[in-house]
Amino acid sequence: MRTFRNARFLTRFSLLTALLTLLAPAQGQEATVKENVAYVQDGHERHVLDVYAPAGAKNASVVFWIHGGGWQAGDKSDVQSKPKAFNEKGYVFISTNYRLLPHVPMETIMADLAKSLKWVHENIAEYGGDPNRVIVGGHSAGAQLAALLCTDEKWVGAEGLKLSMFTACIPVDGDTYDIPAIIETEEIRRRAHGQSLPTFGHRQKFGNDPVKHVDFSAVTHARAGKGIPPFYIMFVAGHPYTSIQAQSLAEALKKAGIKAVLYGAAESTHNKVNAEIGNPDDPGTGGLFELLDAVAPAHSK
Q1: Which residue ranges form the domains of the chain, and what is each CATH number?
Q2: pLDDT per residue over 264-290, tens digit each?
Q3: Does 77 participate in catalysis according to the annotation?
Q4: Catalytic residue, candidates 140, 217, 248, 268
C-alpha cells in the first residue's frame, strides 16, 4: 500500500512540475539580441543599433542608450552589464551608434539620434517594447546628447515625435550640460597655468559660435510645460567639472518644476561610474531603479 501511494504521489508531482513549466515559459529563457539593425534605409555604416529584449516582453518600457567617446569615438557595444541588468528588470534595451566628429557637425549627430529614436518608436513593439515609454540615457558625451534630446523638443520634433514619449533621462558624468560654463572654466584654467588653448576643444566641437554653445546646452531648454521627463543625474563626486555641471543641470530642472535626482559616486572615476551601472552592489544602480520604479517602471502599473 505504501509503495502504491508513493508512486501515485510521484506521478502527481511530475504532472504538477510539468504544468508549472508550461505556465511559466519565459522563466530561464535568454533575451533576444539583434545587432546592427539599420535605423536609416541605405544609410551610413554607423546608422545602426542593437536591440536586447527580455523573453516574453510585452508593452515594456524601453531604455535608449547613447555611448560616450568625446563625440569622436565610441561604439554601441560599450554597454557593459546594462542590457542584462535592465532585461532582468523587464526593460527592453537599445544601444545606438551615430556619426561622429569631425566628420559631421554636432547638428548631424543630434539628427542621427532623432532618427534612431524614430525607428524605436515605429518598430520597438515587434520586440515587446512600448514606443511611448522610452528612457534615454548616456555616458560622458552621451550624457550631453541624452540630456539635450530630453529637453530641446526640436530634435525629436523634426522626426514627428514629442518629448512626451520620454519617461526618464539618465545622463552619466557629463561635463557639457552648460557648454559656455565649461568652455570658460577650461580656458581660464589653461591660461592660469600658461597652457595653450585646445585646437579642437569644446569651443570648436560645438560650432565655435557662442549662440550654438548656448543652444546645445540642456540647461538652456529646461522649462516647464514641455513634457520634459524626470532626470536621474549620475556623476563622480570627486570631479569638480562633472560635479558642478550635474548640480547646474539639476538646479535648472528643479526651477522648472521637473524632478531631478542627483547621485554622486564616491571614490569612483569617469569610466567606473558608468561601468558599474547594473551591478547589484552598486548604490547608484539601486537609486536608479528606485526612481524608475516610481516614474518609469518596466510595465505600466
Answers
A1: 29-178+217-295 (3.40.50.1820)
A2: 999 999 999 999 999 999 999 999 999
A3: no
A4: 140
pTM, whole model, 2 decimals? 0.90
DSSP code per residue over the chain: -HHHHHHHHHHHHHHHHHHHHHH-TTTTPPPEEEEEEESSTT--TT-EEEEEE-TT--SEEEEEEE--STTTS--TT--TTHHHHHHHTT-EEEEE----TTTS-HHHHHHHHHHHHHHHHHHGGGGTEEEEEEEEEEETHHHHHHHHHTT-THHHHTTT--GGGEEEEEEES-S-SSHHHHHHHHHHHHHHTTPPPPSSSHHHHTTS-HHHHHHT-GGGG--TTS-PPPEEEEEETT-HHHHHHHHHHHHHHHHTT--EEEEEETT--HHHHHHTTT-TT-HHHHHHHHHHHHHS-SS--
